[in-house]
Amino acid sequence: MKLLFKQRLFSWFDSYDIYDEAGNTAFVVKGELAWGHLLRIYNSCGKEVGYIKEKVFTWLPKFEMYVDYRYVGCISKEFTFIRPRFNIDYNGWNIDGDWLEWDYNIRDCTGRYIACVSKEIWNWTDTYVLDVQDPQDALYVLMLVLAIDAEKCSRNN
């Protein structure tokens, strides 16, 4: 399953549209005013299906993931000098990417491929292609990409 993740050009808060392979809206993400990032995720019917929330007052960025208001895990940045690394506390997943943070792979603890994420560089806004092996993992992969993009946005500001 492939998803196209596009940040909206003109919005007060982080807002994203996520499209499926046919060009239909699969998810809509809307940022809210809060301490730290708070991104709510809606399905194509407009029902809230999850959100990520940045923990404030932590030494390194940390984002909690919620599905149907239930905590499911978190992603936190690790201290490194050259290549950014993230610790994922969800289902034994891990993430490995390049030093530019444009392309990365998500695998489970056995090395099984979960998803591949790549950034398209010739766009006005952040645009990623998410190639997800199992469609049931799409929401969780989307949450991880949102957290990494929010962390990069905070670091670059």
UniProtKB/TrEMBL annotation:
It holds the Pfam family LOR. Belongs to the LOR family. This is Uncharacterized protein. It comes from [Eubacterium] siraeum DSM 15702.
